C-alpha cells in the first residue's frame, strides 16, 4: 500500500542545512495500523508529511497504492492526495464553518456535486457518531468531538490511507481510548490502512499492528505485533522495543 524508498528531507536553517529525515525506507501493507514512534524532534511528523507530499522529499521515492507520487504531475498528484486522509493533533478545523461544512470542504475541492456532498457528509457524520452536531461550530464541541469531525472530514473522499499526526496527544485518557476505537473501526470496517505518528507508547500498544522507531531522522527499528507480541498498556522501561514488546531485539538497520 505504502512504500518509501531512501527518502531524505533537509531544511535550510540559519547555520546550514538540517536533515530531519535521513534516508528512510519503509513498507506498509494494506490493512496495517502502522505506528511511527520516537523522541521529540526525531523526524516523525516530517516523515508523515512526506507520505502525502505535503513536504517534497529531496531524495527518494514515495509510492501509495501503486502510484509513484514523487513522479506525478501536479493535477494527478492532487487527485491521488484526495485518497489519502490526514488528521492532526490540533484537529485543524475551520472555526467559522459548521461541522457539516467542515466535512463538505474536501468534497467541494474534489468537485462532488451538491446532492452527493450532502449525502456523503451525513454518512461520514453518522460513522463518527456526530450526526446530531451537523449544525454546530467547532468551538461548541469537546476535544474528542472535534477530532471526530476531523476524522469525518478525512473520510469524506473514501481514502485508502489515513495519516494521523499525534491524533490523541491533545486528549485526556478516556477520550484517547474513544478516538483510538474510531480509528480501529475505520481500519476494520472500511479496510483503510492507517499510519499513526505518536510519542505515546500506549497508543502503539493499544491499536498498532506494527511499529517503526525513529531517532535523529533515521529509522532505527521495526517490529510487528505478530512477531514480537505487544504488552498491554502501562509503563515499562528500556528501549522502545522493550517497552512495547517486553523483549530486546536486534536493532533494524
Ligand atoms: N519546516 C521546517 N523548517 C525547519 N525545520 C523544520 C521544519 N519542520 C521540521 N523541522 C525540524 O525537523 C526536526 C524534526 O521535526 P519533526 O516535527 O518531524 O519531529 P517529530 O519527531 O515529529 O517531533 P515532535 O514529536 O516534537 O513533533 C525538528 O528539529 C524540527 O525543528
From TrEMBL:
The keyword Zinc-finger belongs to this UniProt entry's keyword annotation: no
Listed GO MF terms: ATP binding
Residue intervals of the ABC transporter domain: 2-241
The keyword rRNA processing is annotated on this UniProt entry: no
Superkingdom assignment: Bacteria
Matches recorded under Gene3D superfamilies: P-loop containing nucleotide triphosphate hydrolases
Pfam family, one: ABC_tran
Keywords: Amino-acid transport, ATP-binding, Cell membrane, Membrane, Nucleotide-binding, Translocase, Transport
Originating organism: Paenibacillus phytohabitans
Location of the region described as Disordered in the Swiss-Prot/TrEMBL record: 234-253
Name the record gives this protein: ATP-binding cassette domain-containing protein
CDD domains, per the entry: ABC_MetN_methionine_transporter (cd03258)
Amino acid at each position: 500500500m505504502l512504500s518509501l524508498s531512501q527518502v531524505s528531507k533537509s531544511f535550510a536553517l540559519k547555520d546550514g542545512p538540517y536533515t530531519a529525515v535521513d534516508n528512510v525506507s519503509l513498507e506498509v501493507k494494506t490493512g496495517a495500523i502502522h505506528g511511527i514512534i520516537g523522541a521529540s524532534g526525531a523526524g516523525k511528523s516530517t516523515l508523515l508529511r512526506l507520505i502525502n507530499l505535503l513536504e517534497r522529499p529531496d531524495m527518494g521515492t514515495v509510492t501509495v497504492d501503486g502510484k509513484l507520487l514523487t513522479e506525478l504531475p501536479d493535477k494527478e498528484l492532487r487527485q491521488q492526495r484526495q485518497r489519502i486522509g490526514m488528521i492532526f493533533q490540533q484537529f485543524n478545523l475551520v472555526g467559522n464553518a459548521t461541522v457539516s461544512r467542515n466535512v463538505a470542504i474536501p468534497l467541494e475541492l474534489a468537485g462532488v456535486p451538491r446532492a452527493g456532498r450532502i449525502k456523503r457528509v451525513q454518512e461520514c457524520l453518522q460513522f463518527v457518531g456526530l450526526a446530531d452536531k451537523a449544525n454546530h461550530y467547532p468551538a461548541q464541541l469537546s476535544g474528542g468531538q472535534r477530532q471526530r469531525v476531523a476524522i469525518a472530514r478525512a473520510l469524506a473522499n473514501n481514502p485508502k490511507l489515513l495519516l494521523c499526526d499525534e491524533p490523541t496527544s491533545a486528549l485526556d485518557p478516556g477520550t484517547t481510548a474513544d478516538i483510538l476505537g474510531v480509528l480501529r473501526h475505520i481500519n476494520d470496517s472500511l479496510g483503510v490502512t492507517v499510519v499513526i505518528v505518536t510519542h505515546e507508547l500506549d497508543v502503539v500498544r493499544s491499536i498498532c499492528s506494527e511499529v517503526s522507531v525513529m531517532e535523529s531522522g533515521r529509522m532505527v527499528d521495526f517490529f510487528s505485533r505478530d512477531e514480537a507480541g505487544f504488552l498491554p498498556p502501562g509503563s515499562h522501561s528500556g528501549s522502545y522495543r522493550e517497552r512495547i514488546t517486553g523483549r530486546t531485539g536486534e536493532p533494524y538497520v
